[in-house]
Specification:
Number of helices: 7
CATH superfamily of the domain at 188-499: YVTN repeat-like/Quinoprotein amine dehydrogenase
Organism: Betta splendens
GO cellular component, one term: anaphase-promoting complex
WD repeats: 222-263, 305-336, 441-473
GO molecular function, one term: ubiquitin ligase activator activity
Largest sheet: 4 strands, antiparallel
InterPro entries: Cdc20/Fizzy (IPR033010), Quinoprotein_ADH-like_sf (IPR011047), WD40/YVTN_repeat-like_dom_sf (IPR015943), WD40_CDC20-Fz (IPR056150), WD40_repeat_CS (IPR019775), WD40_rpt (IPR001680)
Strand order of the largest sheet: 1-28-27-26
């Protein structure tokens, strides 16, 4: 019985029916007391005075890990695990002192002494405590490098911007006088040879201007003052010049010897347009007829192309010699086949287009696309139209808001040049095939009548009713293309030179 009495005493002692006054507080009690505590350093009830509040909190350090904590000091650096707390304090001090003026007492202290004092006092070099520290000497910047933090604006050239921007001068490079020039829209009075000779017809005379040396030559003059020159056209190699006159004749001149080779009579009205295709010379007259002449033959007239009802004022052979384009005062554009491909003398046009509403004098074949033809209408039309000869369709049309007197393709930049009369009296350069305007060349005081291109395709020559010839250097010459062009232009004995009678 005594044993049972002892067990009952033990159980009564171990019962938890009464609160434990000297034990630790429960966690929820500690949280409640800490939130209601008047001061952060206050002690919880029931705790001894020598026990701090931070000692009862959850440990901030993971057991078994030896990582340093982020300092609790306000304004400290970001956490960098390689520094101790002492270095963080020094780094914060250096940040606050960085913008302060230097002490006069520190000016005479060398860096070596400062380093020695720092190692002695702190145990490490104070430079190692800087927030941003660069070890070793900085590397030299690469060539052409720009520090964007030290400049207001920095631009690195992209591949597109490295390309040199083309400059088109708005003023002519040279102005030549052209007195007694006939201000007639339907005539073609200017042409530039492959030997760099510029021919211009002034009333009843023809003058040659050597663009290389600047010399001027009076080639010929008609016998009657009532007659006048209506058209000019150089052969491909630039040795012979065809001249259409108001009396219906076509004269052929050897320019080098300044000698007339022959006078071919076949038209009954003035010859306002001429175009060469090797030894075939085509002439368009006011009667509306087009005559093809074989200059090798004594009986030069080989066929007549009939289609226009009014004066033929535009005539151009395609670069490949397959087609002849003609434009007339009847607002029509015809495309004729090559003479060698035609059978008999009744030749029919390949295409006939009537979309223009004005006289069609301006015609130009595309040098890099022989099947493309550009045509321009007069005052009542004012449109540039691009034709595909293979399909016979109009690819595009552009209203220039001005009379079009001449068209010309510039191969250096694949552009189209147009000359205008009323009301702009200027020259326009268009990007092909978009026909977006590149530039305008203003300066003529009257309508521009004709355009021609220099042998190197870099300069435009324009003649206008103000009796001036203006040279516009609008196309930069590619040196590689220039050498190829010069080799092609070199004088050689041609078929025409050997065969003209």
């Amino acid at each position: 019985m005594a044993q049972f009495g002892f067990d009952n005493d033990i159980h009564s002692i171990l019962k938890l029916d009464m609160p434990i006054t000297n034990g630790p507080m429960a966690r929820w009690q500690r949280k409640a007391s800490s939130s209601n505590a008047p001061a952060p350093n206050g002690l919880s009830p029931g705790k001894s005075a020598n026990v701090s509040l931070s000692s009862s909190k959850t440990p901030g350090k993971t057991p078994g890990k030896n990582k340093k904590q982020t300092p609790s000091k306000m304004g400290g650096d970001r956490f960098i695990p390689t520094r101790n707390s002492k270095q963080m304090d020094v780094a914060s001090f250096l940040l606050t002192k960085e913008n302060e003026p230097e002490d006069a007492n520190d000016a005479g202290v060398s860096s070596e002494n400062q380093k020695a004092w720092s190692v002695s006092l702190n145990g490490y070099n104070i430079e190692d405590a800087k927030i941003l520290h660069l070890g070793g000497k900085p590397l030299n910047a690469p060539e052409g490098y720009q520090n964007n933090l030290k400049v207001l604006y920095s631009h690195v050239a992209t591949p597109a911007s490295i390309k040199k921007t083309r400059y088109i001068s708005s003023t002519p490079e040279r102005i030549l006088d052209a007195p007694d020039l006939r201000n007639d829209f339907y005539l073609n009075l200017l042409d530039w040879s492959s030997r760099n000779l510029l021919a211009v017809a002034l009333h009843n005379s023809v003058y040659l201007w050597d663009a290389t040396h600047g010399d001027i030559t009076h080639l010929m003059k008609m016998e009657s003052d009532e007659d006048h020159i209506c058209s000019l056209s150089w052969t491909k190699e630039g040795r012979y010049l065809a001249i259409g006159t108001s009396d219906g004749n076509v004269q052929l001149w050897d320019v080098e010897n300044q000698k007339r080779l022959r006078c071919m009579a076949s038209h009954v009205a003035r010859v306002g347009s001429l175009s060469w295709n090797d030894y075939i010379l085509s002439s368009g007259a006011r009667s509306g007829q087009i005559h093809n002449h074989d200059v090798r033959l004594e009986n030069h007239h080989i066929c007549t192309l009939t289609g226009h009802s009014q004066e033929v004022c535009g005539l151009k052979w395609s670069p490949d010699g397959r087609y002849l384009a003609s434009g007339g005062n009847d607002n029509l554009v015809f495309v004729w086949p090559c003479v060698s491909q035609a059978s008999g003398r009744n030749i029919q046009p390949v295409h006939s287009w009537s979309e223009h509403q004005g006289a069609v004098k301006a015609l130009a074949w595309c040098p890099w696309q022989p099947n493309i033809l550009a045509s321009g209408g007069g005052t009542s039309d004012r449109h540039i139209r691009i034709w595909n000869v293979n399909s016979g369709s109009c690819i595009s049309a552009l209203d220039t808001q001005s009379q079009i007197s001449s068209l010309m393709f510039a191969p250096n930049y694949k552009e189209l040049v147009s000359a205008h009369g009323f009301a702009q009296n200027n020259i326009a350069i268009w990007k092909y095939p978009s026909l977006s305007k590149v530039a305008e060349l203003n300066g003529h005081e009257d309508r521009v009548l004709n355009l021609t291109l220099s042998p190197d395709c870099s300069t435009i020559a324009s003649v206008a009713g103000d009796e001036t010839i203006r040279l516009w250097k609008s196309f930069e010459v590619d040196p590689v293309k220039k050498k190829v062009k010069e080799r092609t232009i070199k004088s050689t004995s041609s078929v025409i030179h050997q065969s003209i009678r």
